[in-house]
């Protein structure tokens, strides 16, 4: 028969060997559960899904399902900025 004893309720001075063993077993189970949860959180598939969902929520409005105007503006601005840099550098190399 095992006593269902939690670690915080057991002290070495007042517990029986059976209670201490049960307390250790319960602590090991909790630690194993915590490790399993942490491994699940850092699994590459989970991280990739979380990153994709975050990126999608940045670009797509969840209520309407349409692309956010600020995301379109940022994309267009980035393309124009890169194009301006390319044109600027190509013009400098011809002069120099």
Automatic annotation (TrEMBL):
InterPro entries: DUF3618 (IPR022062). Keywords: Membrane, Transmembrane, Transmembrane helix. It comes from the Bacteria. The keyword Transmembrane helix applies. Pfam families: DUF3618. The keyword Transmembrane helix applies. The chain crosses the membrane at residues 71-91. This is DUF3618 domain-containing protein. It comes from Brevibacterium antiquum.
């Amino acid at each position: 028969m095992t006593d269902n004893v939690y670690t915080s309720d057991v002290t070495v001075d007042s517990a029986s060997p059976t209670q201490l063993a049960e307390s250790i077993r319960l602590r090991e189970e909790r630690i194993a559960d915590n490790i399993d949860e942490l491994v699940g959180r850092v699994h590459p598939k989970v991280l990739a899904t979380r990153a994709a969902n975050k990126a999608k929520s940045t670009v797509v409005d969840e209520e309407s399902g349409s692309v956010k105007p600020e995301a379109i503006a940022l994309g267009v601005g980035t393309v124009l900025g890169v194009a301006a840099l390319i044109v600027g550098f190509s013009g400098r190399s011809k002069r120099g």
